[in-house]
Design a protein that fits this description.
With 133 residues, the chain is α+β, with helices and mostly antiparallel strands. It has one domain: Nuclear Transport Factor 2, Chain: A (Roll), CATH 3.10.450.50. The chain contains three helices and five strands. Strands 1, 2, 3, 4 and 5 form a five-stranded antiparallel sheet that branches. A hairpin with a 6-residue loop joins strand 1 and strand 2. The mean pLDDT is 93. This is UPF0225 protein NS354_00405.
Length: 133
């Protein structure tokens, strides 16, 4: 069986990319955690999203919209978030298609290292941009 492409867009197969993180491996950087969280959105894996969310900011539940199909992730920049850092920031744009058309979500996400693992803290988003195609 061939390895399907990873939704995060790194250009490698899911089994070598986000698959191990979804199975419990620690992300080596804030960017890799961001990519694995995008893949979890694309695959509908709400438990992974909750499990990689900082307990101080994590919602009690998370319902993913089954009508939204995540198509592409663009990493626009990173600040810190490497193997020797305790905090990091990843700015990205995610492209999706929903019932009303194209969705572009841009976010500046903050991450921190907690117990040796990266967790998502929160993000700043400008007003959502929706375009019909």
């Amino acid at each position: 069986m061939t390895d399907r492409p990873c939704p995060c867009g790194r250009g490698i197969g899911y089994a070598s990319c986000c698959g191990p993180l979804h199975a419990g491996a620690a992300a080596p950087s804030a960017e890799r955690l961001m990519r694995s969280r995008y893949s979890a959105f694309a695959l509908g894996d709400a438990p992974y999203l909750l499990g990689t969310w900082d307990p101080a900011t994590r919602p009690r539940t998370l319902e993913l919209d089954a009508d939204v199909e995540w198509k592409r992730l663009f990493i626009e920049g990173t600040e810190a978030g490497g193997p020797f850092d305790t905090v990091g920031v990843v700015t990205f744009t995610a492209i999706a298609r929903g019932p009303e058309g194209r969705i572009e979500l841009r976010e500046r996400s903050r991450f921190r290292r907690s117990g040796g693992s990266w967790v998502y803290v929160d993000g700043e988003t400008p007003p959502e941009r929706r375009h019909s195609m």
